[in-house]
TrEMBL record:
Its EC number is 1.1.1.22. Residues 328-452 form the UDP-glucose/GDP-mannose dehydrogenase C-terminal domain. Keywords: NAD, Oxidoreductase. It comes from Citrus clementina (Clementine). It holds the Pfam family UDPG_MGDP_dh_C. It catalyses: UDP-alpha-D-glucose + 2 NAD(+) + H2O = UDP-alpha-D-glucuronate + 2 NADH + 3 H(+). It is an enzyme of class 1 (oxidoreductase). Belongs to the UDP-glucose/GDP-mannose dehydrogenase family. This is UDP-glucose 6-dehydrogenase.
Length: 480
């Protein structure tokens, strides 16, 4: 029986290995992690991450050919293929601080693999890593090999949270990069054979190592660039009276452009986009490509601008102050159908409002109060380190109240902000919400999911990103 071990039981490692176990019943899959609490959650009734369909997959395989364990060294030693899916946070100090990826955890994993291995292994990069990381890993393994042979492959993930299980069941493509040597090609074929259990062969793409590593960064940079492009247009739409939804629909009909990732919003979030672009910027700078680096920097600048613009619109609408005013925040996760809050725009919006002394009442159906308080207290990039190295949970902020009901969040509020596009927010009784709010009552739709005309009929003053402005807002133009 082929044995696979994945180091890292997070958003990538857990779901990916669960689906491999489901689709490959003759392969034994072990997911290992140093976090005792995380492994306990994977083995329990309440999984550590929320992802539609994941629980069903795990329950079908767990204990049969899918195992979650903290016994890292034994599982690595026994494995034929070792996936490494550890954190690659942005460096916060030293060379490349604020841009470069910190490969501390990757290097530790590589050294541990070298220490415990007693047989030849295929080591697979599953984390998003900088180009040429494989070369560094090869050097560590080769210099500590004790006659054991290693082949390094790059197999980046292209999952979208909220649809990760379906993405794994039916991927656009599986990308495998390896050395262009007989041994490298043999390793590529071994990993292809795993995916071939359910992925059509024409969707399994093979490249050299460097192309595979760069393709992941490039894919995320291109997707983020589309979001920043439409968000830049949303500001122009508001200034001219155009409707960004209509503009997006019109340009999306061009088959060369297509409709995906053209929804204007308060900004992109998630664990990958900003981090990968910063990494790309750093690599460009290191290779003397200043103009290319500046181009990708602008994608992040526009994203920050969009969040700042949203906060400024809220404050300027409310007579240039939200001090002491209750603002309801509906949605804290970075997108619907996930509990993930990494780099969510809600953090920056909430911090901006708290900076003006607002009182926040926050509701999200999948994010806990502890997570919200942690996110609002953490420094930038702290979230990307293993949880035992993150700051301890802070005392609850008196300005922040987390509730488990949208109506409670909005009761006696001056304004409501929609920051995650949860379906339930589309069907709330907004007449009831209006009746229980202070007047004038404001709604700031950061996801463009509400019927603006109906809300205005009820009596709300509505701001929806990229839509023609309410007369109220035309007199209170906010520039970030």
């Amino acid at each position: 029986m082929v044995k696979i071990c994945c180091i890292g039981a997070g958003y990538v490692g857990g779901p990916t290995m669960a689906v491999i176990a489901l689709k490959c019943p003759k392969i034994e899959v072990a997911v290992v992690d140093i976090s005792v609490s995380r492994i306990a959650a994977w083995n329990g009734d309440q999984l550590p991450i929320y992802e539609p369909g994941l629980e069903d997959v795990v329950k079908q395989c767990r204990g049969r050919n899918l195992f979650f364990s903290t016994d890292i060294e034994n599982h690595v030693a026994e494995a034929d293929i070792v996936f490494v899916s550890v954190n690659t946070p942005t460096k916060t100090q030293g060379l490349g601080a604020g841009k470069a990826a910190d490969l501390t955890y990757w290097e530790s994993a590589a050294r541990m693999i070298a220490d415990v291995s007693k047989s030849n292994k295929i080591v697979v990069e599953k984390s998003t890593v900088p180009v040429k990381t494989a070369e560094a890993i090869e050097k560590i393994l080769t210099h500590n090999s004790r006659e054991i042979k290693y082949q390094i492959l790059s197999n980046p993930e292209f999952l979208a949270e909220g649809t990760a299980i379906q993405d794994l069941f039916n991927p656009d493509r599986v990308l495998i990069g390896g050395r262009e040597t007989p041994e490298g090609q043999k390793a590529i074929q071994a990993l292809k054979d795993v995916y071939a259990h359910w992925v059509p062969e024409d969707r399994i793409i093979t490249t050299n190592l460097w192309s595979a590593e760069l393709s992941k960064l490039a894919a995320n940079a291109f997707l983020a660039q589309r979001i920043s492009s439409v968000n830049a247009m949303s500001a122009l739409c508001e200034a001219t009276g155009a409707d960004v939804t209509q503009v997006s629909h019109a340009i999306g009909k061009d088959t060369r452009i297509g409709p995906r990732f053209l929804n204007s919003s308060v900004g992109f979030g998630g664990s990958c986009f900003q981090k990968d672009i910063l990494n790309l910027v750093y690599i460009c700078e290191c290779n003397g490509l200043t103009e290319v680096a500046n181009y990708w920097k602008q994608v992040i600048k526009v994203n920050d601008y969009q969040k700042n613009r949203f906060v400024n619109r809220i404050v300027s609408s409310m007579f240039n102050t939200v001090s002491g005013k209750k603002i309801a925040i509906l949605g804290f996760a970075f997108k619907k159908d996930t509990g993930d809050t990494r780099e969510t725009p809600a953090i920056d919006v909430c911090k901006g409002l708290l900076g003006d002394k607002a009182k926040l009442s926050i509701y999200d159906p999948q994010v806990t109060e502890d997570q919200i308080q942690r996110d609002l207290s953490m420094k930038k990039f702290d979230w990307d380190h293993p949880i035992h190295l993150q700051p301890m949970s802070p005392p609850a902020s008196k300005q922040v109240n987390v509730v488990w009901d949208a109506y409670q969040a909005a009761k006696d509020a001056h304004g409501v902000c929609i920051l995650t596009e949860w379906d339930e927010f589309k069907t709330l009784d907004y007449q009831k919400i209006f009746d229980n709010m202070r007047k004038p009552a404001y709604i700031f739709d950061g996801r463009n999911i509400l019927d603006v005309a109906k809300l205005r009929e009820i009596g709300f003053i509505v701001y929806s990103i990229g839509k023609p402005l309410d007369p109220w807002h035309k007199d209170t133009l906010a520039v970030a």
